[in-house]
Amino acid sequence: MHFVRIFLALGLVLPVVSLAQEITAVYPARTVPGGSVTITGGPFGEDALVVLGDQAVEPKDRQTDKLVFTVPALLEGEYTLLVQEGESVSAGTHTLTVIEPTPRIISLDPRNLETCSLDPDHRVVAEIHHVLPGASLLLDSKILPHERIDQGRLAFRPPSLAAGIYGIQVVNPGGARSLPQSLWVNDIPKIDSVTQGEDFVSYYQLIITGKNFFPNSALVVTESAIGFSDTPPQQNFIFSKAPSTARGFQRIGDHTVYVDCATLIYNRYPYSSQPKDLTLLIVNPDGKRTANHHLSAP
After folding, report:
1. Domain match, 259 and 226 both
2. Considering the domain boundaries, does residue 157 fall inside one?
């Protein structure tokens, strides 16, 4: 203190000495990627960066005596930790141990698939916590090709799958494995709409759109006879023909043409042009069927 007074009395300027940055504590000392870590010590300036291994990390909270940062996606191991500001580096040696987290699948979008998909590029996006670079994606314990969208999302294109429930899992490089998340594949047929198509001399077309139709699906048509109220409704089972076969010969009588798994054409030969109440449903070879679809048509 006497030296300071002497300098001031002589009118001399004291040299400015920058205090060395010091780390007094790091907690927690063990964490996972994405975990929050606090460094105490200082003095830390506005440009202070945390250097973890060979990665510079911007603190999310910066105070003169405290820095808080989020651990980036790193493999399991022990990493040197220091604070750097410009050319100044904190004194001493400190380490942070990164342990491999157990991944957890938060969601699959979509979670329900149809066996009938007209889009070959459809994909499923898995939102995952604690998925590390190099992680594997499994479908019923078999490796599934995938692409990484960002730090917490993986996308995959499911292979051709039979109806059922499948387990999706994530395995990090160190072997930590998530619990399975269910992926549902549905093959129950459904009629979304029935619209009238082309009209010919002796028949007209009803276009049936929906999903999960098969070439050998049966169309069940229930109708009442016009003018005979006491007559019970008549039920007819009508089967599909592929378009090429249907064009190859003229079939007299109601029949359907299978276009794809979402479209059937019902070629209907009415005996009267007067509209009547019809009930349609589709039955697949395995017995699964649509709900009844009601309409009025000749």
Report:
1. yes
2. yes
